[in-house]
Amino acid sequence: MHKNLIKRTPVHFLAKSFVIALGISGMIEGAAGYFSWQPNRRNINVPVRKVVVMETQVGKSIPRREDPRFLTGSGLFGDDINHPNQAYAFFVRSPHAHANIQNITYDAALASPHVITILTGAKYLTDGNGPIDHLIIGVDYDDTSLPGFPDEAIPPYGVPPHIPIAIDRVRHVGDIIAIVIAETATAAVDAAEKITTDYEPLPAAIEAREALGTAAPRLFEGDNVCVEFSRGEPRLTETAFSNASLIVQLKSLSQRISAIPIEPRSASAVIDPLTGRATLYAPSQGVHKFKLAVMSALNLPADKIRVITRDVGGGFGARSCSNGEYPLLVWAAQHIRRPIKWTATRNETFVSDYQARDTDADAALALDANGRIRGIRIDYVINLGAYPVSFAVAGNLQRLAGGPYDVPAVHISGRAVVTNTVPVSVYRGAGRPEVTYLVERLLDMAAQKLGVDRLEIRRRNLIPPDALPYQTPLGPRYESGAFSQNMERAAAAIDWSEFPERRAAALARGYLAGIGIATYLESPAGAPNERADIRVLPEGQVEAVVGTQSTGQGHETVFAQVVADTLQIPEQQISVSFGDTDQIVAGGGTHSDRSMRLGGTALVRAGESLISKGREIASNVLEVSISDIVYAGGHYRVAGTDREIDLFSVAAIKTASSADKRKKHLEGTETVNVRLHAHPNGVAACEVEIDPETGTVTVTRYATVDDVGRIINPTIVRGQIHGGITQGLGQALFEHNVYESSTGQVLAGSFLDYCLPRADDVPFFLVVPNDEQPAPSNPLGVKGAGEAGTTPATSALVNAVSDALSSRGVDHIETPVTPERVLRALGVL
Q1: CA 20 to 30 Å from 818, out of 332, 710, 767, 774?
Q2: Region label for 338, one of left (φ > 0), alpha (ψ between -120 and 50) or beta (otherwise)
Q3: Cβ contacts of residue 72 below 8 Å, gap of 6+?
Q4: Are the beta carbons of 484 and 461 closer than 8 angstroms?
Q5: Which residues touch 661 (CB under 8 Å, ≥6 apart)?
Q6: pTM higher than 0.90 for the full model?
Q7: Which H or E element spans position 684?
Q8: pLDDT tens-digit profile of 704-736?
Q9: pLDDT tens digit string along 587-621?
C-alpha cells in the first residue's frame, strides 16, 4: 500500500485491534460433506477405500475463517446482543477520587419517566452480597519458576476487598455508587442526573511512592501496602556490586496506560423465571473466571450462573478479570426479574476499564571491566489502583530480570500498593515489557560509559547455545533459543552497519537520527488449567470446544488447523467454539501466551484419545486385533492390507450402538493442569528521526526477529506481532493516563487527551523469520506470539531516541517520549 494512501486512511485503532492488525484474506470454502455410508455391523463387508494422506495444516497461512463475518457486519459483539423485554442500566459514578458518602438522595430520579428502580450499596449489602474474589493470591507455591505470595508477603490485615458498588466510601473517580434501571437507556441517563449525593471529600493518594509514606491517605485499614516481595540472592548480589568495575543506575516509571479495545464494554444479564438461573453475556478473556467472580460476589452456587462470551473486540489483558459491573448486572436482573443491558460510553471506559503498567523502578546493573554483567538489582513500587484485582505483574517482575543474558546474581524486591486511581490489571506482556525496558536501557547506558559498541556489549552477555538448558537465578529454566543469532539477524535487517551514513544524511536535513536495539525473553505461564472436548459427528463434521477465549486473535482458524493435523482430515470439516460455561466445563481463558500452548495441547491430546477409542470399534468391524489397526489419513486400516474404515463411519457405528445417549458420539476429552512453560524471545531494532525544532519523533525503520516456537499460522503470527509492536510504540510515544496529583481527577478521559498511534505513525514492519526453536514442554512446540511484538518495542524505541539525543548531551528520556519531553531534554523549554 502506498504510504500516502496510508496517511489518508483513518485507522485510529490500529494499535488496539487484532481484527485490523491481522491480514484479511476472504471466505473459506464450506465443509466437504463427501461421506455417504450405512452403519457398519461386525459381519458386513467394509468398502475398500484408498487412504488419503492429508497434507499438514499446521504451518500454513490459511485465511482466517472469522473474517467474513467481521467484514460483513455479522459479528456478535456485546452491544449486538439484545433480549425481549430488556431493561437498561446506567451506573452512577463518583466524581471524587476519595470521599465518604454521607447521603444519596434519589426520590426525584425514581419518579422520573420510565424508571423501574434504583439500587445502591446499602441494598447490595442487605441482600447478602459481598466482594469479588479475583483469585489473586499466590497461584502455586510448589512451582519454583512461578512464585506466588506466601502468607508472610501479605500484610496482617489482608488484601483489601473489591466490593463492586461503594458502600460508605468511594476510592477512585468512577467508583460506582448507584444503578439506575429504566425502560430505555436514555431514560436511565436522564434519571441519573437527578440523583444528588453528599460527599465528605478526603485527601487522595495518587502516585505509588506517595502512597508508601506514613502520612499518606489510607484507603483501607492498615497502610496502603498489599504485598511485599523479595526474590533472588541479596548477599550474592551485594558481593557482585561490591566487586564491580562499573555500576549504572536508572530510576524510571513505566507510565499508566489503557488497553483501549476497539469495542467498549457491553453486557447483559437474564434470569430464568422458572429456575432463577442467571445468564451473563459479557466480553471476557475467559468465561470461567467471570463465572467464579459472579458466584463469589453474589453467593451463587455454580449451577445458578452461566456466562457467555461471543465475539470480543480486543482484550489485551484488561478483560482477564471481572469488572464490578458484571455481578451488579446479574444482581439487578434478579431484582427486576427481567433482562437488563448496559453499554459503556467511550469516555466511561477511561474511569471504569482496568488500566495498566504504572510500575516505578529503581534499578542498577553491575559489570566487570570487560563489560560482562555481574549482577542486577531492582526495587519496584507497583500501583494497584483502588482495589487489587491482579498480582500477575508482581509475579512476572520477580521471575524475569536478565532476559536472555547470562546474569550470575540477581535480587528483586518490591511492594504493591493501593491508590485512589482506577484499578490496574494486566496488559499485553504484564510486567515483561517493564523489566525488559530496565535491562535494555541499563545495557545501553553501560555501553556508553565503557565506550563499547551496543551490539558488542550484548554479544558478550547473551546466553550461548552450548549453555542451554540454562538455569536462571530467579527460577525459570530456558530450554531452547538462538539469542545471538536473533540479534545478528535483526541488526542485519535494519542495516545497522550502514546507519552512520543515514545519520549524516538526516543531520544534513536538520534532523537527529538514532538507532536502538533491544532483546527480550518472556516466561509466560497463565492459569494452569485447560480443557478441550472433541466429538465426531456421523454426518462428516467434527466439533471442538476449548476453554480459552478469542478476543480477535484467530482461534477458530488456528485451533481448526491443530485438530485437522491431529485427526488427519480437512480443516474445513472442523468447527471450533468457546465462550460458554455450559458448553465447556473448565478452562483458563486467554492470557499470558497460553491459548495455543495449553489449549492446543489439550486439543492434541483430546484428538489422540478420540482416535484411540475409535480404534477399538474399527477392530471389531474389521475383525482384527486392536494392535493390527493403524490410523492414517482419517482412516483406520488393517496394517499391511488395503482393508479400512473411515473416521466418520466409525463415529456412526458409535452413535448407532450407544445405549447412553449422553455419550453417543465418538469423542475425546483432555484436561491440562500444568503450565507447560515456554520462553518466547527475540530482538527488535528501531530507527528514528527527531525534529529538534518541534520535538517530534518519527519512527523510520523497525525490524524484529521473534522466536515464538513452532508457528501454526504464519500470517496470523505476523499480524499479532504487527499489532503488538504498535501497542509498544504507542506506550513509548503517546499514551499516558494522567491524573491530577492533588485531586485524583482523570485528565486523560477521552481521545482528545489520550493519544493513540495512527497508521501514519508507524513504518512498515520488517518481521524477519528465525530458525524455529520448538519448545520441548508441549507437543506442538509452541512458545507464544501474542506478546512478542509489545515486549521489546518500548525499549528499542527509547534506545533509539536516546541515541539520537546523545549528541546533544542527553543520555536518557522517560516515556512517553512526547514532543514536550524531547524539547525539555534539549533545553528548548
Answers
A1: 767
A2: beta
A3: none
A4: no
A5: none
A6: yes
A7: strand 681-690
A8: 999 999 999 999 999 999 999 999 999 999 999
A9: 999 999 999 999 999 999 999 999 999 999 999 99
